[in-house]
Amino acid sequence: MTDPQLAHATEFGRMYSRSLSSAPEAPSITTVISQEAKDMTGWAGHMAATELISDSRLGGAVGSPGELRTLARQASSAAERFRDAAAARGDRVHSYAEQVALAALDGSGDPDSARNLLHEHGETAFADRFDQWWDLYGVKPLAAEITVWNHTVGYAGTLDLVAEIGGRVCLLDFKTKGVGRDGRAKPLQDSVVMQLVAGMRAEERLADAASGTWEPWPHTGDEGEQPILLAVAISEAEVVPVQADPTCLRAHWRKFWALRQVWEHSRSVTEQGRALRPIGPPPGPAPQMTE
């Protein structure tokens, strides 16, 4: 996603401030969700091994411990480099989706420039599939890249899109996905439901970042019809929208609330400083050694 004006990188993760001149106060929705530990060591090992055996220099390095160590050291960062490249690609795809929405909303968007950037990286297929989905579903944007805030639980975040689809108000989160061996977009993770329900449970939305002006969030579902929560997987092969099952929202909201408490307590522990300190022997004469 693009960088929201009020988002800041901190030692406690991504946090939001109330205005351009104020300090960060609340963790982002994605920072809260990231408190759930996920073991990625297997994937990281697979990425490193795959890069190593694919390295054209491997044959010549056999028998040379020094050269092998160099190749292994470079391969060990394969997962990190893949992650960073995927994040940059996701930013470009999100930017295109945002520009398309803004162009349709009030004419302020520039999808051509965003598409040209994708073209420079050989990624125009993402834009092509997105355009097909946009037209097929008749998306009518109501707001794009909306920063929201929840005071009761204490978090903030930026939603990709609020739109009307088929006569219903929908909250949408875009996810850029690769293509699996079956030629289909890779599936989305269930954690996106927490992201969507946290967005729906917002209490305010940003009106003006410079002055720190906020207004009530109208899409909580407390009054009238609840919005449809959609996660949209965008790949080079297809766009796959999926709906968060309304019967699951309460459970995922409770999980998000619990993870928010984890973040708070982790921050408190960190701010306390070192929890362990050295201790000397007790006072009194030292015990005598006997043979």
Count of beta strands: 10
- Residues in helix, %: 40-55%
**Low-confidence parts:** none
Element-by-element helix/strand order:
EEEHHHHHHHEEEHEEEEH
Provide the structure class: alpha+beta
Q: What global shape is seen?
A: globular
Rg estimate, integer Å: 24 Å
Rounded mean pLDDT score: 89
Binned strand content: 15-25%
Count every helix, treating DSSP H or I runs of 4 or more residues as helices. 9
What composes the largest sheet?
A: 7 strands, mixed
Order of strands, main sheet, comes to 8-7-4-5-6-9-10
| N-C termini distance | 72 Å
Describe this structure in words.
This is Cytochrome. The protein has helices at about 30-35, 40-55, 60, 65-75, 80-105, 110-120, 125-135, 190-200, 250-270, and strands at about 5-10, 15, 25, 140-150, 155-165, 170-175, 205-210, 215, 230-235, 240-245. By secondary structure, it is α+β, with helices and mostly antiparallel strands. The strands form two sheets. The chain has a seven-stranded mixed β-sheet, with helices on both faces. The protein has a three-stranded antiparallel β-sheet with strand order 1-2-3. Helix 5 runs antiparallel to helix 6 (about 110-120).
